[in-house]
Automatic annotation (TrEMBL):
Annotated protein name in UniProt: Anaphase-promoting complex subunit 4 WD40 domain-containing protein
Keyword RNA-binding set for record: no
Keywords linked to the UniProt accession: Repeat, WD repeat
Protein family per UniProt: Belongs to the THOC3 family.
Residue windows of the WD repeats: 245-277
Cellular compartments per GO CC: THO complex part of transcription export complex
UniProt xrefs under InterPro entries: Tex1/THOC3, WD40/YVTN_repeat-like_dom_sf, WD40_rpt
GO terms (BP aspect): mRNA export from nucleus
Pfam families per record: WD40
Domain of life: Eukaryota
Length: 392
């Protein structure tokens, strides 16, 4: 068929990455694949029992919030072990001790994106709007492995928006306002290498994520209809190897990779979440539970639960909630109303605890709390947590 001919032409040209995988045989193999990993079958049954009953859901969940967190717009959110890292609009990145309810330490800078090392919860990478890039130890305010101005390598390396650390911790991908994809090589200690760049011409990049095998980067784009996902081979970033997938009617807003490496989830401005087979590059499932754009989403540490946040960035009307579904079963487990749109969320790397950040401009303030006794301090908190019971 045409896909086989395309694969043959790709092989003849030496094209690597996702484009070389899209064959008719691969599509058939996908259809024959089991939709649910047998290893997760027992876990799915557990979630059906614990979360599937509306009468017991409220008793099984534990809501809390990060005390002492600044009432500022959050640009990035991640876990550093059992602590929470937050990049705020007030030009400060802070580490919060959730159990003690206090700020642990902070780092000044116009930080726009941040992520902890997938293999070391005490190491984090951050990039600033001005082009400053840093890899540092979260247990110290001064210790760092890299701290440099990327503009010295190229004046265009500034105005960064997204950062994604490769699963093996050897590379970091960045995107900026000019929609350049930049790959940094961290394999040599104390010697950061600007490995390659890729220009996403005509594609506004809203989110990036690595496949779990580290062989490709997925980019959520906007600006066209239908909106596309770009699957870019790594580390080559070869334009010939790029695959475009029509994923949403409107902007692709958010991405997440399942820890088992099988699935990439995409959230769109069309209120739909699509689930993509990472190997065969076909859509295998879609969720239509949202009525607002899906701004952020993520898998739990086992890959059995998928959470997302919805709501417009401005305006008080429309849906504002946190949704959790069974990633394998498609079962809707929770739609928890929030007092403002969820802008960022991140699961704990080893526990079923979800941290999420709300739009501070739409939260109740202290005067609202005094006027309405039904409101609690958690209702006005920017960063909140939701704990789902772990299996015994």
């Amino acid at each position: 068929g045409s896909q086989d001919r395309r694969a043959a032409r790709a092989a003849a040209r030496g094209v690597d990455g996702p484009a070389a995988q899209m064959t008719a045989a691969a599509h058939i193999a996908h259809i024959l694949d089991p939709l649910v990993d047998p290893r997760l079958a027992k876990e799915d049954l557990y979630w059906d029992k614990v979360l599937g009953s509306t009468s017991t859901t409220a008793d099984q969940l534990s809501h809390d919030y990060v005390r002492g967190c600044k009432r500022e717009h959050v640009d990035a959110l991640d876990w550093a072990g059992d602590k929470i890292m937050v990049c705020s609009k007030d030009n400060t990145m802070r580490l919060y001790d959730v159990e003690r309810g206090e700020k642990d330490r902070s780092w000044s800078g116009t930080w726009m994106a941040m992520q902890t090392d997938p293999n070391n919860p005490h190491i984090a990478a951050a990039v600033a709007w001005c082009g400053r890039f840093r890899v540092f130890d979260t247990r110290s305010s001064t210790s760092h492995a890299y701290d440099l101005d990327l503009r010295k390598a190229s004046p265009s390396l500034k105005e960064f928006l997204c950062l994604a650390w490769s699963p093996d911790s050897q590379r970091i991908a960045l995107t900026n306002r000019a929609d350049n994809l930049v790959l940094l090589d961290l394999r040599m200690a104390q010697q950061l290498k600007l490995e390659r760049t890729y220009q996403c011409a005509g594609n506004e990049v809203n989110s990036i994520v690595w496949s779990q095998d580290g062989e490709s980067l997925w980019l959520a784009t906007g600006g066209g209809s239908p909106a596309k996902l770009l699957v870019v081979p790594t580390p080559s970033l070869s334009s010939e190897g790029v695959v475009e997938l029509a994923a949403h009617q409107h902007f692709c807003l958010s991405l997440a990779a399942s820890p088992d490496g099988r699935t990439i989830a995409s959230g769109g401005n069309d209120c739909v979440v699509t689930m993509w087979d990472n190997k065969h590059l076909v859509c295998k499932q879609a969720f239509g539970f949202a009525t607002q754009g899906v701004a952020t989403l993520g898998f739990n540490h086992t890959g059995s639960l998928l959470a997302w946040g919805t709501g417009q960035a401005s305006g008080s009307s429309g849906e504002k909630n946190l949704t959790i579904v069974g990633a394998n079963t498609g079962q809707l487990y929770l739609q928890d109303p929030t007092s403002a749109p969820v802008q960022h969320l991140k699961w704990h790397p080893k526990k079923n605890v979800l941290a999420y950040a709300l739009n501070p401009t739409m939260l109740p303030d202290e005067r609202d709390l005094q006027r309405d006794r039904r409101l609690q301090h958690r209702d006005a908190a920017v960063v909140q947590t939701l704990k789902v019971p772990d299996r015994a």
